[in-house]
Amino acid sequence: MWSSVAVLALPIALDPVRLGVNLLLISRPRPAQNLLVYWIGCVSASVLLLVVPLLVLHNTAMFASFVHDLANPHTAASATVRRIEIGVGVLILLIAALTAARSAKPDSGEASPVSRLLNRGRDAPAEGGSAIQRLLGRAHHAWESGALWVAAVIGFWAGPNPSLVTFSLATILASGAAFGAQLGAAVVFIIVSLAVVEIVLLCNLVAPDGTAVALRRVHDWVGGYRRWIVVVILTLVGLAFVAQGAGML
C-alpha cells in the first residue's frame, strides 16, 4: 500500500504545470504568503477528494460490506477493481507511447495554463461582457493587487488529479490495513504529492533569492523537455496501475 500510494503521488509532485505555478507564485510581492496559501488550497482539495471519502466509507454502515469486499482479493469487487486498474494502466501506457511518438521536437517552455488564464483577464471588462469575462477581470485585478485568495483558489483548482486520487483511494481500501494505517497512507499521499511546493516554501523562507534563481533554472530546463517528462510520468503511472492490478505491488 505505501509504495503504491507513493508512486501515484509522484506524478502530481513532478507535474511541470505545478512547477510553473510555483515559479509564478514565487515571483509575487509576498512569495512566502502566496506559497503558503496555495499549499493550503492544495491540501484542502486533497482532503476533500481523499480523506473525506475514506472517512465516509469507513464510518457509514451501508458501505461497510463494500470496503470489506474490496479488501478481500477473492471477492468480485476486488477482482473488478483490479481489472479496471490493469485496463487503465494499459490505456495510460498507450497514451505515453503516442505522446512519445509526437515528441520529436522539444517544447518551447510556454507559459503555464494558470498564467495564461490570468493574462486573459488583463483586458477583460470589469463591467459588461459575459459573466466569465467579468470574473476573469476581477480575478486579474485581485491578482495584481496582491490578494491572497487568488493563490488559494489556484491551489484548490490545481490540486491532485482526481483520477490518481480515485485509484489511490481504491489502493488504500484494497490493502485491508487498519483504518489508522489507511488514514496515514492518505496523509503520506498528500505530503508526497505536494513535496515540491513544501520544499520551495521552506527554501524560500531560508534563502528567497537563491530559491527564485534555482526554481527559474529548473523551470527553464523542464520547459525544454516538458513532453518527455510527461511521457516518463505517464509510463511510471501506467506500470504502477498494471502492477497493482496484477497484485505485484
UniProtKB/TrEMBL annotation:
<keyword id="KW-0812">Transmembrane</keyword>
<feature type="transmembrane region" description="Helical">
    <location>
        <begin position="142"/>
        <end position="159"/>
    </location>
</feature>
<dbReference type="Pfam" id="PF11139">
    <property type="entry name" value="SfLAP"/>
</dbReference>
<feature type="transmembrane region" description="Helical">
    <location>
        <begin position="228"/>
        <end position="247"/>
    </location>
</feature>
<protein>
    <submittedName>
        <fullName>GAP family protein</fullName>
    </submittedName>
</protein>
<feature type="transmembrane region" description="Helical">
    <location>
        <begin position="179"/>
        <end position="207"/>
    </location>
</feature>
<keyword id="KW-1133">Transmembrane helix</keyword>
<keyword id="KW-0472">Membrane</keyword>
<feature type="transmembrane region" description="Helical">
    <location>
        <begin position="35"/>
        <end position="57"/>
    </location>
</feature>
<dbReference type="InterPro" id="IPR021315">
    <property type="entry name" value="Gap/Sap"/>
</dbReference>
